Amino acid sequence: MKRLILIWLCILFFGGFDSKGQSCESTNLVHYQYNDIKNILEKNSCLNCHHGINNGWSFDTYRNMFSSGKCGSVIKPGSPATSILVDRLNGGAVDCGNPIPLAAHTIPSKDLLAIETWILVGAPEFCIPEYEEVKNIFNSNQCQDCHNKNGEWSYNTYNSLFFKPGNSVCSDPLVVPFEHNNSFLYKKISGQSDICGQKMLAGNVPMSYEDVARVRDWINSGAFQASRALPVVLTDFSAYNEEDKKVVLYWQTSSEYNTAFFEIENSGDGIQFNTIGKKQASSNPNVLTNYEFTDLTPGFGNQYYRLKMTDHDGLVSYSSTRAVRLKSNVETLKIYPSSLQNNDPLFIEWIASDNSEIAKIQILDIIGRLVFTTIINPGINQTTIPALSPGLYYAVIPHDIENYFVKKMIMIH
């Protein structure tokens, strides 16, 4: 109990995430920009592995940070819960690939929350402009010479910016909130060649990189007329394993607008969540409010927790997940599906009986020959087995020369 009180005192006196790290401020919103997040990643020694695009994913530039791979988009503006970066950093098993870093060396929850908050507001490179600032960007680039005439697209009012003239032959929507790549306006000002119609130029030259980027940031933040206050601003959301017997959740809000209640949800796989508790919200704007919930009957292995936040109008939003690993006295190995075809994804769920961070799993044919091996982490792992002859195979985890943890049978069709 003394340790729990100490944790709360740390939250009260030192705060959840470092609000001073948010270098942008508008009428209703204080937020992070790219350089703030880059500094957080550098502080957590992420450069040790991600110091250049040739080493896989890199955050040395804003563009590199948004790269996509076989697992999908690293960052999805407005949606931290579906961003690969958050999935990899939350400390548990991931939907694709491996967690970074391993669960025993996760980044501080305040830094993870800062990254999630940055993505939630649109993952901007610069400070997010409001509509009037976007309008000024267009004016400074002489766009009014062509686009405030009768019969032409106009940005003179906020509403007109979203509507194409009736004689337009281009079908793409002008502005898709949170999706700059699907917004025709962004394609026009960024000089993309494969677009309908002509590029939007400023005196026959392209707009500056920063002007284009700030319009992009505005779209990715939701393309609102004015910066919006978030309904719930989380300044801390943490989960702590208490002696492998219970999990204690803490969260702190700095403001709540119209918030009715929080529901605490738990999952053993990070996919299917069940409600395990509920807390009424204080609904106090601009006031620090602390909450605590204890899961007295958690499962073993990686356990995932998130908050379901409901306002008085019935609108629902979710926090990102927090992962906690609880030890088990028994090693567990689950493999599914048990029947698959070549190149189908194979899911391997492993719970160690000790503090092992990694294990080597081997696939053996019916007479014991090794046909495939890969490294797994505690929790759910996904891999693809190369082309194999149809038949029965075994999955084993070798502990030493004489001892194996066996055996799950797999049928290859």
Brief overview, please?
19% of the residues lie in helices and 30% in strands. It is of the alpha+beta class and 413 residues long.
Describe the protein.
The chain is an alpha+beta fold and 413 residues long. The protein has three domains: 2-125 and 228-326, Immunoglobulins (Immunoglobulin-like, Sandwich); 131-220; 332-412, Sandwich (Immunoglobulin-like). The chain has helices at residues 2-14, 34-43, 62-65, 84-89, 109-120, 131-140, 144-147, 184-189, 209-220, and strands at residues 24-25, 30-31, 68-69, 72-73, 232-242, 246-256, 259-267, 274-280, 289-295, 301-311, 316-318, 322-326, 332-336, 339-340, 345-351, 359-365, 370-376, 379-384, 391-398, 404-412. Strands 7, 8, 10, 11 and 12 form a five-stranded antiparallel β-sheet that branches. A hairpin with a 3-residue loop joins strand 5 (232-242) and strand 6 (246-256).
Overall number of structural domains: 3
Radius of gyration: 25 Å
CATH superfamily of the largest domain: Immunoglobulins
**CATH architecture descriptor name of the largest domain:** Sandwich
Low-confidence stretches: 1-19
* Biggest sheet record: 5 strands, antiparallel
Total helical elements? 9
Helix content: 10-25%
Identify the CATH class of the largest domain: Mainly Beta
Per the CATH scheme, the topology name of the largest domain is Immunoglobulin-like
Structural class: alpha+beta
Query: How are helices and strands ordered from N to C?
Result: HEEHHEEHHHHHHEEEEEEEEEEEEEEEE
